[in-house]
Amino acid sequence: MSDLHGAAVVLRPSAPEDxxxxxxxxxxxxxxxxxxGEDDLAAEVASDLEDxxxxxxxxxxxxRIVGMIQWYAEDEPDYRHAGIDLFLDPSVHGRxxxxxxxxxxxxxxxxxxxxxxxxxxxxxDNAAAIRCYEKAGFRPVGVMRQYERGADGSWHDGLLxxxxxAELVR
Length: 170
Fold this sequence. Notes:
- The structure is a single chain.
- This protein is an alpha+beta fold.
- The chain is built from 5 helices and 8 strands, in the order E-E-H-H-H-E-E-E-H-E-H-E-E.
- It has helices at residues 19-26, 29-35, 41-50, 97-111, 127-136, and strands at residues 4-5, 9-13, 55-61, 64-74, 81-88, 117-120, 139-149, 155-164.
- A hairpin with a 5-residue loop joins strand 7 and strand 8 (155-164).
- Helix 1 packs across helix 3 (41-50) and helix 4 (97-111) packs across helix 5.
């Protein structure tokens, strides 16, 4: 796969040499609160890159690694769709880079892979992420109650969002 270019970001297949920078971003308090992880985040990121069911792309901005966006496919013909997830360095939050990355990947999934539907599932209280995804065309489907266990052991709601190919805001 070649690099994918957005208005501000470049997405390229994640490589082992990206692991230290991606682990450092995952270790920031803002990202770790959402993505959590064990003590060895570098090992977890490296494991993510080796997962054959998830495609990981490193997000670059001005030749600097600022995050990762990943996708998976549900290939059962009657339910075929793709799902997206991402994290960004908090130092670049609020610049539209997340929306740019989501738009670029969504366009790739629709145009190059033929997906007619994409899903994403932010925490229901993650207003910034929800706004980001809505700008790319995702719409709320519904709240998934007690969807994810938090670091404190309590359950938290998630928001299922989807986007149909014709709804992608390019």
